[in-house]
Amino acid sequence: MPMRKIEIYDDDEIDIRVYTGEELGNRSGGGEPDLIDSMALTPVQTHSVNVAEVDRATSAPVYDCDAYITFSTDVPIGIRTADCVPILIYSKDIKAIGAIHAGWKGTLGGILDNVIGILMEKGSKAENIHLYFGPSISGKNYEVDSALAQQFIDAGFETNIIYCAGTSRPHIDLEGVNHVRAKTLGVPAQNIHRSDFCTFDSKDEKGKYLFPSYRREKGTDRRLLTTIRLKG
């Protein structure tokens, strides 16, 4: 699959892009690291809730980290996913951006809360924070076992557990959980931009799948790369 770019958002202050193709694998298998590293600063993701601040002097990926924050202009930061939720953040008042990898572990553990908390400690106000969700697996396609669903229910996210026709097993809307988390922290609803894509079943005009999906492709090494850049 040739690499393709999907522009999610672009204005005078930031741009957000999604790249997908055979060249973009995970760091443990597949992909071309030199190409990926030339496109954006990306961490070595481990489904943690750890956050690191980076800048143009950052020369190596941060290990055991699933979110980057930067105040540097024209330094794209990004994360790799294949069903997990990519979340891009822009704090307009302090001119900072963030890129977050939120799988079920990071979503349940509150990695979004950690990033927003850091931005607010640095002077941002919740009403000036904007969130953009990249493509991830939709709730209707993210079937889980009852034990995992119960963990989300116990954490207060019962409304994001859904049941679909044809199965008695629960599904989790991970993007929805993060949407709730952002609103709870004071981010205005109008500042939260949800994705129209699903990594599991979104297709192009020729009927080909747009994105790699860990669920659909049974553990694929392929990834999509979602980036955000603060314009200088």
Summarize this, please?
With 232 residues, the chain is of the alpha+beta class.
Q: Could you say how many structural domains there are in total? A: 1
**CATH topology heading:** CNF1/YfiH-like putative cysteine hydrolases
Give the helix/strand class. Answer: alpha+beta
> What is the straight-line distance between the termini?
33 Å
Overall shape: it is globular
Q: Give the oligomeric state of the chains in this entry, treating copies of one chain as homo and distinct chains as hetero.
A: single chain
Average pLDDT over all residues = 91
Quantity of strands, as a count: 12
Summarize the helix and strand pattern as letters. Answer: EEHEEEEEHHEHEEHEE
| Structure annotation, total helices | 5
Rg, nearest Å: 17 Å
Instruction: Specify the CATH homologous superfamily.
Output: CNF1/YfiH-like putative cysteine hydrolases
Query: Can you list the strand order of the major beta sheet?
Result: 3-4-7-6-8-11
Q: Residue share in helices?
A: 10-25%
Largest sheet: 6 strands, mixed
Spans of at least 5 consecutive residues whose pLDDT stays below 50 are none
Percentage beta strand:
25-35%
- CATH-defined architecture: 4-Layer Sandwich
Please give the CATH class: Alpha Beta
